[in-house]
Amino acid sequence: MKQRFITLAFLLVLVLMIGSGLAIEPGKAGDPMTGADDPDLVLQKLEVSVIKRDFDEYRSVLSDSFVYVADLGTVSMYPDIKWDHWGLTKEEGFLTRLMSPVLKCELNLTDNITERGMPYNKEARYEITYMLKIQGKKYVGSGLFVFEEINQRWFLLRWEEIMPITDKSTGTFFTNSGEVRASLIP
Description:
The chain is α+β, with helices and mostly antiparallel strands. It has helices spanning 2-23, 39-52, 55-59, 72-77, 88-98, 177-184; strands spanning 62-69, 105-108, 113-116, 123-134, 137-150, 153-163. β4 (123-134) and β5 form a beta hairpin.
């Protein structure tokens, strides 16, 4: 009887230890910094998370050192915004508004990847013509997306506007994500 009690107590302690270990296991879905297996999957996660309005999933593939770099036209149009300080905190504020239930938005990063740089020294660079759609209105730009590899997981480190894209129907430039960011920051 005494041996049975000791065995049950031991098993109970073991179950509690295992249970508490599982409760704090890193890398669960929705936790910050889960990353993706490769840069293409980072882009797919970003797209899907915007459609689902899943802030945690979007955040999970952003590097803690994430920066957004606006083009010179956007910087001159919005001089009151400290663009050189656009890091994770500002991006999270922008995303909170972008993913608002009242805005119907889409992000397309994977349909027009114009250049995939081979990963080198734990970094990869892609040039992408992307499309952000809000309430049916298209915002298009060309960006340099820099990814970093941390512990065999990929994260978006930098989104930099590199070239305005011309709207063939009007002959003017599309509004890019910098102008959208400027209008949606808190």
